[in-house]
Amino acid sequence: MIPILDMVQGPVRWLAGDGPMGDRILSTRVRLARNIRGTRFVGRALEPELISLRDRVLDLGLSISALPGANAMPVGDLAVMDRQLLLERHLISHDLTGDSAVRGLVLAGDEKVSLMVNEEDHVRIQALAPGFQLEAVFEAAQKVDLELEAHLSFAATPELGYLTACPTNVGTGMRASVLVHLPALVLTQQIKKILAGVNQVGLTVRGFYGEGSEVVGNFFQISNQTTLGLSETETLTKLSRVVNQILEWEDRAQENALRDARLQVEDTVLRALGVLKYSRLLRSEEVVGLLSAVRFGHTLGLRNVPSVSVLNDLLLRCQPAHLQRAAGREMTAEERNAYRAELVQKVLEVRDAPRFDP
Amino acid sequence: MIPILDMVQGPVRWLAGDGPMGDRILSTRVRLARNIRGTRFVGRALEPELISLRDRVLDLGLSISALPGANAMPVGDLAVMDRQLLLERHLISHDLTGDSAVRGLVLAGDEKVSLMVNEEDHVRIQALAPGFQLEAVFEAAQKVDLELEAHLSFAATPELGYLTACPTNVGTGMRASVLVHLPALVLTQQIKKILAGVNQVGLTVRGFYGEGSEVVGNFFQISNQTTLGLSETETLTKLSRVVNQILEWEDRAQENALRDARLQVEDTVLRALGVLKYSRLLRSEEVVGLLSAVRFGHTLGLRNVPSVSVLNDLLLRCQPAHLQRAAGREMTAEERNAYRAELVQKVLEVRDAPRFDP
After folding, report:
1. Which of B152, B158, B246, B316 has its CA 20 to 30 A from that of B211?
2. Nearest-CA distance from A297 to chain B in Å?
3. How far is A7 from chain B (nearest CA, A)?
4. Where is the Phosphagen kinase C-terminal domain (chains A, B) (predicted)?
5. Quick one: DSSP state of residue B36?
6. Do residues A33 and A121 make contact, with C-beta atoms less than 8 angstroms apart?
7. Whole-prediction pTM value?
């Protein structure tokens, strides 16, 4: 068994909050979908074939210089909780948390670059970084891609580019995404209009936290929809331009909110901080909303609030698997709510919170 | 102009929180309705007649030893804000805040005993004290009553007792009431059943704060409904017995709440404290609810929460006229909400609250 516990105990590098525009952009991600020429797609291949492919890629992953300090593991060997932990750190996809025996993961020591094996495609290269840095993240993924290509022959045609299991990825096989915080656009109810506009230029925006369609915490993931017809660089340039445009709108919405409803904004931010510091039970989705509100205060120049790094760290560690790993045991939702509140108050160094005698 | 400003700046004695059972009973009140024999009731008399009566009672009030340090004033001479201030301190009734020229007030220096003149009846004697002390409060009112009777002849018959403008007060003319805090009975949804039962034994319970029928802050006023057929002492004994019974039920409900839903109760209490300490805007009714929740924590043994005296003081000073008096100017509701939050945080000595740069 791989010592996931030790490996993923601390904060994640890509959520460190110290990247460019880190107070408004949580992270940038690029993933490249690749398939091995002459091997059937994951959905069609037989298990022995896929296991053999998995082991070959896991071995190869350990030798790649662009994946320093890598660990390689068959995902099926991991405990359910460990898989959940990796999912919460965005290191594997939801598809990869299942019990399938064929799946694998290679993870660089700093968790910034990883390879998923036999998820939807044979190989998915993922790179993550804190803040807004599309080029750097693309380069990190590309380095792994080039090293892999020296050993593997990827399925591609001159007309289409890379071939993938799902037609929506054919071409570059690249999905680049930026995780942005847009509290003022939500507050001023402009977000719907903007989401619609973004869709029209071939990009996708969706709420990041929260089940289903409900947006929690004003976090949005903006990514390219198309992989055909534009080169990687053109795609990144377009995504970058749109993100910058949205940030300008967000800036204007913030100015308007402060001008027209300053006290209400301050009240929302400060109440959120009060609840984080004092509550005894914090639900998973509620804490995302509260952390979002406090982050908004930070962006607006509120003094004496937790730093973006601390807020990001809490966003990560308040998730169910992280809480249970920290507690060293499985917990019911109610137990997690209590443990989550304690964790938040420990991290925020709340010293004066009243307590009942035990 | 009477210097109401100086007189009513500080905390009120009857809300000091140091009375018997002060954590659960805010205050006890007794008022006696009296009318002058041979003078028509207020609703029927002519203005000159009432003004003459008023001046006579105001003069008399200043000489009564049971009203030490008294101030006497025609209420119509007071500024609207001062009348509102007296109403918020429960020193005059809502009826007495109008512009009528005939009304008067005599107020003991400690605000515990007062005379209202030409409200519904010619004279209403009121005594207030912190906590649960029906006998002491009745005695304080009775002393004033006896001294007044030495100079005034009160309308009464041997069969009916004291005659009053409204038939519901005929007899003793006494209304005794106890202001209790019943958070656990509200939480466990038993309060409705109890209110119904109390009505059946000739007592009245009504929510104390909040407009209309909505109960705010779990404060209830329990008082006698009947003034005929029972002596003052019998009435007080009955009221006392019922209040004690209700407090026992409240105790049991608290035990149940702590046994079955301890974390939820703690969470409610602590969140309320967090919002009081951090919010930037506090509405009038909201603050009553929050103070009620924190008081509940105090009753349950929460360490490191504001004392009952502080909570009572805030209950008083967060009211609109008190806020405006403290600010020295009239304020809109929104301005009051901001000022209220500042006041609460000053009183609670919140030092670490984040602030926006001005």
Report:
1. B246
2. 8
3. 33
4. 24-253
5. B
6. yes
7. 0.88
